[in-house]
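quick one before i forget lol
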Amino acid sequence: MPLIVLLVGLGALAMLVPAVHAYVTRDLVTARAFLYSCVMFLFLFTMIALGTSNYNIRRQGRSHLISLFALFAALPAMLAVPFSEVVTDTTFGNAYIEMVSSLTTTGLTLFEADRLPPSVHLWRALVGWLGGFFMWVAAIAVFAPLNLAGFEVVAATESSRDQKGGVVRLDHIGGSSERLARFAARLAPIYGGLTAVLWVALMLAGDTPLVAICHAMATLSTSGISPIEGGVAGATSGYGGEFLILIFLVFALSRLTFTSDGRQDGWPALIRDPELRLGISLIAILPALLFLRHWLATIEDGSDVTVIEGIVGIWGAVFTVASFLTTTGFESSAWGEARAWSGLDAAGLVLMGLAVFGGGVATTAGGVKLLRVYALVKHGQREMDKLVSPSSVGGSGQVARRFRREGAYVAWVFFMLFALSIATISTALAFFGLTFEEALVLTIAGLSTTGPLVDVAADKPIDLIALAPGAKAIIAAAMVLGRLETLAIIALLNPEFWR
């Protein structure tokens, strides 16, 4: 059975969750909309499944890559049907954009929180959560054998070697369908269990069940979707809830936090993981620099700062930096104090830069990915060493040398493609009357899958609902491109891929 057909069935079954929630809360109109949509699409799934039951997929890698594109480009049209049936004062195009944003874990929303019923908020968070889980599975089962989504950086080193140092061809370890089933079965209990633990913890911290489950799913999927205005900053759990969310954001920094692949030495290998170390370093260094900036200013001015003010300012910076680095986009309730305390005027530029860096490879985070950034950093360090000692030989072994050379080369190629995508999409948006700042913020929000940038990065929040249909279509394309990444789209357009 083609993968996209199976996804249609899973999407239809997922509609039962908001249907039951709406029925329990006695919102019968919403319950009927989701229930009828579920029945209609399950019938459609059954018909298509029967028609393709004997269909033989000759090239599973190509088929699954096409299915991934259809997942993020076409499936939202199905997911938007109950949304548009409930929210009747909007167009189907707006509902489609909302579902693309949710499924790609971007979290960009066209609607104010009070405008949507609670069950629709649950639907948005659930779609984002399912989209994040599927990216978890697809990254390892589909992208890794094709050397895409960041795996191209380590294709010649750790990804192609077994525990004894022998070469292993990942594309020969079972078919794509077999890998999808195996990794889905392996990761589903981890993904669901972590979400359940965070849900219960947030409820104990003071959040309502709906807010807690939406924030838990938004954290694990890095979608940043919230049913309340202000997101985490407006939750009743306060700093305790932010601390709990910060702990679970670590799973967006490195794939080694939730899978044993690549951890041949056990948990000590996690400490040596370059992505995790780089991510934690950024989370620690940037708030420290903001703290030192204000601390030096207070010494010159002779003003007094209480310990509580200092702690609140540091916490607001740490949580917000970690959230935008993982492309989640939650803003701390202390971020306003942190900005005022540090005197940071260009906060939007800092947050956009963090979102562009992104999280770890094979995680739910978007952006360029920390592994690519690390490869470029190591290559830059080596080039500076060669300026001092031109005849020197780089250490750390053959694998590290190939990582600094071949790995840095493909990382630079992707970085240039990412930069070209930013220039192209922002220019296209400018044709629809958007200012340079608005076009740049929307472009980076889409390509890095960090939708909350729209509200916090610009001088004033961008009114998405008032944009022209053409601009909305470009933003939707940017979100799909940011989720699948440019190299995967190029692979689909490669004539050799179709032969």
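fyi The two ends are 22 Å apart (CA to CA).
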